[in-house]
User: Which sequence fits this backbone?
């Protein structure tokens, strides 16, 4: 049985769910399995997503980063990103 091709909006919403709330159900069927499983590929995106947003916060708030030390800042940034993606 062939499933309907999702719209761009549906794919974007599914990717957002995967990145933000770690729900891969809507997107994993549309990820190519070539050498890495869909879950492994999505983990790469998830890690990059968090790293890029953490870097953006670090660049936006350099004084805070210096005051609280890198480890604390990165932990706080990840908590913030999860709460406010």
Assistant:
């Amino acid at each position: 049985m062939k499933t309907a091709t999702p719209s761009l909006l549906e794919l974007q919403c599914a990717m957002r769910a995967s990145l933000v709330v770690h729900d891969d159900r809507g997107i994993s069927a549309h990820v190519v399995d070539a050498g890495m499983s869909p879950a492994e590929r999505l983990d790469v995106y998830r890690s990059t997503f968090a790293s890029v947003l953490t870097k953006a916060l670090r660049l936006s708030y350099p004084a805070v980063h210096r005051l609280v030390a890198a480890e604390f800042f990165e932990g706080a940034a990840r908590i913030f990103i999860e709460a406010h993606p």
Summary: The CA atoms of residues 10 and 26 lie 9 Å apart.
